Every structure is written in C-alpha cells, then in structure tokens.
Amino acid sequence: MEKTKHYYLTPLMAGWIEDLVNNKELLNRALKQYESPINIHCINNFQSNVHSYSHVLSSYGLRHKIYYARKANKCLVFPLTSWQINQGIDTASYREVKQCLDAGIPADSIVCTAAVKNRKLLEMLVQNQVEIVLDNEDEMKLLQEVCENLAIEANVILRLSGFVKQNKLLKSRFGFRLDDAYSIITERIGKGKEFSYFRYYGLHFHLNGYDAEERAIALYQSGELVERLHQVGIKTKSLDMGGGFLMNYLANEQEWNNFNDALKEAVLGDLNPITYGNDGLGLILNEGKLLGKIDVYPYYNKVNKENLLKTILETRFNDQPLYHFLKNLNLEIRMEPGRSLLDQCGITVAKVAFRKRDTENNLLIGLEMNRTQLRSSSADFLVDPLHLTNSDAPGDGQVEGYLVGAYCLEQEHILKRKILFKSMPQVGDLFVFVNTAGYMMHFYESEAHLFPLAKNLIYDSGTKVIVED
Ligand SMILES: *Cc1c(COP(=O)(O)O)cnc(C)c1O
Fold it and tell me: Residue whose CA is closest, atom 15 of ligand 1?
C-alpha cells in the first residue's frame, strides 16, 4: 500500500463567508442563542447571481424573467429578494405559494410547477391568478373543474418533454410530448372546447441532469413548437428553460481530479481508504474491476452559471445561433435556477460534541447536528469543512478522521470523506460547511428523534448583524 496522502477539496468562499469565519465570537453567540447547527444566509451573492443571468439574456436582446426555484432553500428572504429585483419565483407546493402571497409578492411574479397539484392548491392558484404549469391530463381535468366552480379562468403553461437528441429520446416522467402538446393546445384548450376556462400562455421544460447541449436542443425543439402554433394563429407568450445550471463549489480543478482518481484507486485497494468503510460513492468493486460511477454532484465546474447559459444560447442550429432563433420568436424567455442562484448564499455551522475512536480505531468527531442537515441527492458533499477551534492551545499536529452526527445509525456520517484536521478538534470547536444554501441544508432535513430543525438566520454583511429569517 502507498503511503496515505490527503486529498483536499478546498471550497470557494465569498467575502461575507470569510468575514464570518474570522468572527468566531459572532458565530459562538449565534450558536448559543439558536443551538447547533445553524444555517446562516446572506443575500449579496443571490443578487449578483440573478444579475449575471439577466445580463447574459439582455446582451443577446432576449426579453426575459428569471424565476428563482425556491424549493432549493426554505428561507423567505430569497423569494422576496428575487421579486424586489424585478424577477419571479418558481413555487412547488401550497405552502411555498401561500408564503409568497402572504409576504406581499404579487401573483404575476409567481409561477407554480408543483409535481402534484391537489384541489386546494389549484383553487388558490386560480383565485389569485398565479400561472400554472400543467403536467398531465388528470391535472388539467381537475383544474377545469376548479375553474368552472369558481367561474374564473386560469393562465396555463404546458410542461414539455420527449425532446430528441441524436435520434434518442430524453426520458422523463414529467410533461407532455411535443406532438401531444400541439394537439392539446390547438384542439382542446380555449372557449367552447374541453378546457374552456384555460388561457394558453406558454411552454416550459425542466430537464434532469446538467447537460448544456440537451438544454439547447430542448429550447430549439420547443421553439419549433412555438412556430407551429404561430402558423395556426396561436400566440405563445413565454418559453421557460427550467433550472439545472451547474455551479462551482471548488477552488481547484486539480484537487477535484486528484480526488476522483484517488477514490477509484482506494476502492481498488491500491490506496488506503479515503472514505468511511472505503465507500465508493457509487463505485463498486466486482472481481477486481470497478463498476458503476461516482454518484455525486459535479462539484467542480469550469463552465458554470452565466457562462453555461452563454454556451447554451450560442449553440448553433441550421447555421444560426440559438439566441437568434429565440429572439425571432418574440416571446419572454424564462429560466428557473434554484441551486445556482444560491451559490455562495449560505453556510451551516455546527459544534463539536465529542471525540472518540471506533472499533477500527478511526477518529470520529461527533457534531451536534445530523446528516439530514447536510444532504442532497449526491452521495457525499465533496467540499472541505472549515474547522474553527475555540481553544487557545489547539492539539498538536494534523489528524485524520470522520465527522459523525446525532442519529442512532451506524451510517450516520455528516461527510463520508476522510477529513484532515489541522489540529485535534476540541469539544466546543466549530465546523463550518460552506455553500450549503442550495439543497444541502434543507432538502432532506428531518426531525427524527424529535430533534428540532436547524434555525435559519440571515447575516447582514454591512451591519454584521445576524437575525432570524
Ligand atoms: C428543481 C427544479 C428547478 C430548479 O433546479 P436547479 O437544479 O436547482 O436549478 C427548476 N424548475 C423545476 C420545475 C424544478 O423541478
């Protein structure tokens, strides 16, 4: 076996995060008041993230509106900020919509893409005239019934799927195939027809994964549908490309590549484990061969956010750039980024409760938090945590170990990756997880064992004050 070497994954950090990390007193006070762990947010980068998308769309002459997908984070401050800077909010549940309306966000800045829409949600959407993104025929029938009962019409947008890339269908559980959408819009929606209370407004898609070319293809094929509808006199007012814009968490591409290579070697047994129990994060060793693939979010992305949007819009179809084709459709281009608008907008901070060795002599650092408070669909959060020691005399030298949490499960690891601590963590020290606002802190958090959910706090980088969301 090769000598153990550590594989760092250094996070990118916005100025406000560096300020806070250097203000241990403020963090300690917040933890004392709100208990570990806490989520701290700041809107500075949210605003700049929105502006950078908006700037790209403007630069191509595209009329647009950006709908922040609020399912990626529970705080109200982000939908409010999005509206205050003249953009919109994509909502996915009754309470997400209700909260926005109660906070004074006007209905015309909200769109609802909920995957399941029951009668109660549809009634609220219709009564408030929130645009509804339709997914299936049963939903359409229920909406027609709700509209009839209330005698109010609804603005509807059809979610599309079934795009074709190189003769291959992009699979999806969502939306209507393009041809079905055409016949629904031309034959079944409008006065005197089956869905007489619907006003056709626009088209929408949201693709799984992060492929730029797939997004370009979906925009182009949706645009072709817009043209077909136009030929029979039906106007489409908006075309929404959904979310899924990659962001970048890491400062260093080489570190990312090294980690990925090292994980494979470790799983093959050519290197000491760099994850707990030599977890392959999706890779499996089978008769000396690696199967599967590393099943994590791609935390390093050279082309990300607005540059990815540019790549999409500059993709060429029939010898013209996509933005040119879209501009000629003369409609509002929409997008619904969630995660990427929250880039550099939040951190999670937790306190060290204990240190111990497991039966295999691994060092375990127990945090006052649980793994649902730092969890997405990715097999691990591959970003180094920051260790802030409260001790005047930190333990001598670096140590390797794992962060574990409060749920009574053997697999209760906050991070599966082995972490190199610059000194032995002490009880009461803090760990800061950087860039957790998009999904990591909220999407899977649970109250098992009746642990309360982490408090959501907002940091004002000007006054340096932390308040509750
Ligand atoms: C989840 C979702 C988004 C946001 O996706 P991100 O990957 O966070 O950008 C946007 N629109 C719809 C319909 C979604 O389901």
Answer: 206
